[in-house]
Structure formats: C-alpha cells, structure tokens
Amino acid sequence: MPEVYIAAGSNIEPERHLAMAAGELERRFPGVRFSPWYRNTAVGFEGDDFINLVAGFATELPVSELLACLHAIEALCGRPREAPRWAPRSMDLDVLLYGDLVCQEPHLKLPRPDLLKRAYMLGPLAVLAPDLVHPTERRTIGELWSRFDRAAHPLVQVRAG
C-alpha cells in the first residue's frame, strides 16, 4: 500500500479550514499523521499569509480516486473547482508524493515538481518524514531540506487550530 504525502494550505480563515480538512483526512484515512502547522507569505500573488501543513498516510486508493477525495474535502472547505490558481483560497490540497510513483501527465505530475522549490511543502514534509527518499532525486527529504535556502523562504511554526 503506497504511502502518500499531501500538502494542505489556506489563507482564508486558515485555522478553521485546516482543522476541518484535517478532521476529514482523519475520518477518511485512519492513521494519518500531520506535520506541525507553519505560517508563510503568499507565493505567486499578493495576499494574506497562508498556514500550511503536510499529512502522510497509507492508502489503497488509486491516484484518480485520491484526487477526487481531496477535491471533495476542498469543496467542503468552500473552495470551488474553478477557483483561480494564484489567488486566496480556503483550502488547497496537493499530492506531493504517492509512494514511488513518477507520473508526468498533463493534470498530474508526481513527485510534485514544486516540492523541492517551496519551503511550505518541503519543510513540513522533512519534519514528518525526514528519512523518506525522494523518488527522482534519490536523496532523503531531510537532506534535501538541509540544503534548502530557508532564509529566503521563512516558515513560522504556529499552534494547530
């Protein structure tokens, strides 16, 4: 059964929406683990700060069904499917890793390409699974995070909502 890692983020009532999404993930994926929550500035647009976390769990769901499940959780948190990409959002759930799957389809790229460029994805994942080996980089997530320019992309840990 593949181990899956999901990034979750919100900058519209983030504490409430992340708590709601975390509750849904716990209900749907027993045994899910969560990183600490981190505040960081919006990337790609001007807006309120985001709060982000990473969740990890094992699932037998195929990727397509997992994505449908994540979209349903986003909808429960008030995010419409047609929401603009670079804009404030109530919930954003992205698959970072799905086991060792490497996929380059138009609507699904795994491992998620910006995982290695975004502190708010890589940092929480490094806390949750530092010994996990990235499927294409062949280095541990902890090693990749240790080489990351953290000063240019500060994260501030916050209390989970």
Walk me through what this model shows.
The structure is a single chain. The protein has 161 residues and is α+β, with helices and mostly antiparallel strands. The protein has one domain (3-158): 7,8-Dihydro-6-hydroxymethylpterin-pyrophosphokinase HPPK (Alpha-Beta Plaits, 2-Layer Sandwich). It contains four helices and eight strands, in the order E-H-E-E-E-H-E-E-E-H-H-E. The chain has helices at 14-28, 63-76, 119-128, 141-146, and strands spanning 3-10, 33-34, 37-40, 50-58, 92-98, 103-105, 108-110, 156-158. Strands 1, 2, 3, 4, 5 and 8 form a six-stranded antiparallel β-sheet that branches. The model has no long low-confidence stretch (mean pLDDT 93).
Please outline the helices and strands:
Blueprint lengths: L2 E8 L3 H15 L4 E2 L2 E4 L9 E9 L4 H14 L15 E7 L4 E3 L2 E3 L8 H10 L12 H6 L9 E3 L3
Antiparallel strand pairs: 1-4, 1-5, 2-4, 3-4, 3-8, 6-7
Rg over alpha carbons: 15 Å
Mean pLDDT: 93
Which structural class matches the secondary elements? alpha+beta
Which architecture does the CATH hierarchy give at level 2? 2-Layer Sandwich
Distance between the termini: 30 Å
DSSP helix fraction: 25-40%
Do you know the CATH topology?
Answer: Alpha-Beta Plaits
Number of helices: 4
Shape: globular
User: H/E element string?
Assistant: EHEEEHEEEHHE
Described by strand count, sense and barrel closure, the largest sheet is: 6 strands, antiparallel
CATH homology group: 7,8-Dihydro-6-hydroxymethylpterin-pyrophosphokinase HPPK
CATH class: Alpha Beta
Contiguous low-pLDDT stretches (5 residues minimum) are: none
Strand content: 15-25%
Structurally, the number of domains stands at 1
Total strands: 8
